[in-house]
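thought: fold this chain, then report.
action: predict
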Amino acid sequence: MKRITKIVALAAIALFATAAVASASVSVTDGVGHVEKGDVQSALKWNNGDFDKNVGNLTFSTGTVSMVYNNSWICQNGTTYNQPRTQMLAQTLQATPVMSSNGKQITGWDLHGPVASPSKVLSDTGVPAVCPGSYVDIVASFFSPAGLAVNTLASTTVTPGVLQVTGNGVTADLPNAPTV
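observation:
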């Protein structure tokens, strides 16, 4: 009798373990796929109240984008500067909420790949110096009271990474089973 009880107990544990693994319904490949609400809540450790309060600020990302610029500028006093600038950005994904049949609750998100211009800056090194007497913000080619500035994108490198969700200032990895 004890042996049968142990077998039944082990079978029940195996059943629950399988169900727990199967409940992770994230399937994203190259930034395209689907993420369920429950996986986001589990990753961020949110209850339903936390989810309802913070769902509007969620972002999904995978990997990073490194952008290297060649900055050159000439100040009004004739001083010239050349300084490379490197920005490391999160590879943000386009996400569309999937709504319940009544259209009132989010049940998950369809991810459609990287956004055209990543905007979440993780680091920024080599920010240009200041011309004597005024400040130059190098974001594009332009004339300013400080002088002529040129900001040329030299290279962009995309590094794949772990699928992540960010909400309310917290970033967490999502359990991902990419399709092959």
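thought: worth noting. Helices lie at 2-22, 37-44, 48-54.
final: tokens above.
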